[in-house]
């Protein structure tokens, strides 16, 4: 079926006049009449009957006009959806992130983004750094937020986002609570280590190595942040953690920070995208967090 002719017929049927349809479409009346006649021959049915200065729909014409209305409303909906996708106000946004940004940085930005773009579905996958990069490389995520390392990959673009300070913490009643001491003094305490491969553990060992000091013995090993914090809150040992991870507990007074002379280490968090152009929802999200961070 000729959709151009169907559109002309639908306009004439809606307005009840071939002449008015021609004026609305900025076409000549004979051109519109010829197209409608061609459509009638194509489908083998009479659609319009002249009536005074207008036209009347046949039974077949009434049915076709109703179906054409559904078709062109769907066309309008498709066009509107495509415009929303181009504007970044519709579609889906898949994010991948390591533990720190997923839990301490992204929630407020996702909430703000959803308030601004309620029509966009957002999905967040929390994983380690290599898995987050793989999700991005295999088109299962559009943005990856990776903390702890500065990953370089020929297919990925890295944008620095946040530098999180690392800190030593102890129980609020510990003799070193709130004190400023040397690293050598700090390392005399029994330490609670995170699992092997965790950023804090690797940074602590690297710090000791750079200062030619032995790493503190493992007092306990805990495979999780909350477990580590709970042990410190109960009064055992020291830990080397991210300030983002510990800030609320320090503010609440249940643990305390120990300042170390000459030591300042950070946990970098970067935004990764594929080097090809980001989708509109992804670019809107990135623009929002970089503009307001």
How would you describe what is shown here?
The protein has 293 residues and is α/β, with parallel strands linked by helices. It is built from 11 helices and 12 strands. It has helices spanning 3-15, 18-25, 29-43, 59-87, 99-116, 129-137, 183-186, 199-210, 225-233, 243-252, 280-292, and strands spanning 48-51, 54-57, 91-97, 120-126, 143-147, 156-171, 180-181, 191-194, 218-222, 239-242, 255-260, 266-274. Strands 3, 4, 5, 6, 7, 10, 11 and 12 form an 8-stranded mixed β-sheet that branches. Helix 8 links the parallel strand 8 (191-194) and strand 9 (218-222). The longest helix has 29 residues, at 59-87. The chain is rod-shaped. The mean pLDDT is 90.
Can you give me a brief rundown of this structure?
By secondary structure, the chain is α/β, with parallel strands linked by helices.
Taken from the alpha-carbon principal axes, the silhouette is rod-shaped
Largest sheet: 8 strands, mixed
Overall residue-averaged pLDDT value: 90
Bin the helical content: 40-55%
Structural class: alpha/beta
Strand content: 15-25%
Intertermini distance: 55 Å
β-strand number: 12
What's the helix count?
11
- Spans where pLDDT lies below 50 across 5 or more residues: none
Features:
293 residues, two-stranded antiparallel sheet, 25% strand, DNA-binding, transcription regulation, LysR_HTH_N, WH-like_DNA-bd_sf
Describe the protein's topology.
Elements: H1 3-15, H2 18-25, H3 29-43, E1 48-51, E2 54-57, H4 59-87, E3 91-97, H5 99-116, E4 120-126, H6 129-137, E5 143-147, E6 156-171, E7 180-181, H7 183-186, E8 191-194, H8 199-210, E9 218-222, H9 225-233, E10 239-242, H10 243-252, E11 255-260, E12 266-274, H11 280-292
Helix pairs in contact: 1-2, 1-3, 1-4, 2-3
Pfam families: HTH_1, LysR_substrate
Domain HTH lysR-type: 1-58
InterPro entries: LysR_HTH_N, LysR_subst-bd, WH-like_DNA-bd_sf, WH_DNA-bd_sf
């Amino acid at each position: 079926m000729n959709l151009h002719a169907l559109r002309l017929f639908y306009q004439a049927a809606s307005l009840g006049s071939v002449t008015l349809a021609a004026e609305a479409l900025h076409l000549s009346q004979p051109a519109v009449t010829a197209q409608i006649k061609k459509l009638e021959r194509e489908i083998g049915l009479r659609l319009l009957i002249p009536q005074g200065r207008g036209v009347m729909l046949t039974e077949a014409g009434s049915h076709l006009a109703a179906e054409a209305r559904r078709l062109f409303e769907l066309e309008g909906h498709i066009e509107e959806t495509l415009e929303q996708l181009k504007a970044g106000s519709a579609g889906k946004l898949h994010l991948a992130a390591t533990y720190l940004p997923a839990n301490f940085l992204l929630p407020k930005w996702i909430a703000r983004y959803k308030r601004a773009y309620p029509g966009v579905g957002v999905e967040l996958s929390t994983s380690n750094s290599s898995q987050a990069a793989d999700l991005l490389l295999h088109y299962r995520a559009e943005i990856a937020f990776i903390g702890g390392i500065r990953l370089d990959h020929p297919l990925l673009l890295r944008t620095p986002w946040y530098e999180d300070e690392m800190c030593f913490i102890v129980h609020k009643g510990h003799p070193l609570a709130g004190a400023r001491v040397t690293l050598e003094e700090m390392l005399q305490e029994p330490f609670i280590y995170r699992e092997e491969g965790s950023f804090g553990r690797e940074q602590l060992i690297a710090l000791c190595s750079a200062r030619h000091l032995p790493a503190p013995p493992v007092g306990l090993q805990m495979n999780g942040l909350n477990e580590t914090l709970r042990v410190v809150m109960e009064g055992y040992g020291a830990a080397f953690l991210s300030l983002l991870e510990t800030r609320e507990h320090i503010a609440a007074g249940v643990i305390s920070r120990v300042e170390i002379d000459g030591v300042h280490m950070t946990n970098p968090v970067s935004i990764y995208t594929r080097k090809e152009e980001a989708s509109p929802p992804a670019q809107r999200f990135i623009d929002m967090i970089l503009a307001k961070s």
